């Protein structure tokens, strides 16, 4: 019986693999084509889209002129701005998410369930719906064209709070109770017990905050119109001007901007997977 079960699992795994491999290849093809376009001269970018051939993904003439022109211009400062904003957002956002998740998972206070319900409902509200009035408020507070104005909206991430709360619910309450009996404050419980046990989930929450901030376009466009404060997504859009579109630099910038989160996700994929696997906590 066990042998038949093992064979069935192997066959199911093989079928899943035959489905996963083509799906993975299809998801990677747009990025490969963008990389190919970034390595082509401008006049060859769209030359081999139809009919499809191996030249569609493999350029006949390989050139790094697009990347050289891109990094020699203002785009490099936009990338630096994106890195600064994303780093500050991840540090502050992960800390804020962890403290909020700890309060929602461990502390007993009136309205905790209602507050968590409001948090979950906030996922359904698109940021675009509040971006313009929020930008007006930030301008009134003199936070236009500042790093603070770019960072603040990104530090309150409901999904990160949700993921960390679910992980904290899996930690035995007896650990916190024993620490409290020994005289440890709630801050001490959070710092010395919950944080050390939740490193994979902290990495996962940090990645969520990072991806949301890194790909942000509308908010930086509204709150940081100064060329010196532009971030990478806005700088890429600027290659489409009134007199034409520089597709070569646009694709090169897209590859560089997409490569940063891709590299980070590859490095921390194990922790991210572990954080998602630990979110099935109970109330």
TrEMBL record:
The UniProt record lists the ABC transmembrane type-1 domain at 79-268
Record's subcellular location: Cell membrane
Q: Per the UniProt record, which residue ranges are transmembrane?
A: 16-39, 83-107, 114-135, 147-164, 201-223, 247-268
Its membrane topology, per UniProt?
Multi-pass membrane protein
Looking up SUPFAM superfamilies in the UniProt record yields: MetI-like
Which UniProt keyword terms apply here?
Answer: Cell membrane, Membrane, Transmembrane, Transmembrane helix, Transport
Q: Decide whether keyword Transport is in the record.
A: yes
Recorded hits in CDD domains, A to Z, give: TM_PBP2 (cd06261)
Q: Primary place of residence?
A: membrane
Cite the PANTHER family for this sequence. Answer: ABC TRANSPORTER PERMEASE PROTEIN MG189-RELATED-RELATED, SN-GLYCEROL-3-PHOSPHATE TRANSPORT SYSTEM PERMEASE PROTEIN UGPE
> Of which family is this protein a member?
Belongs to the binding-protein-dependent transport system permease family.
The protein's name: Carbohydrate ABC transporter permease
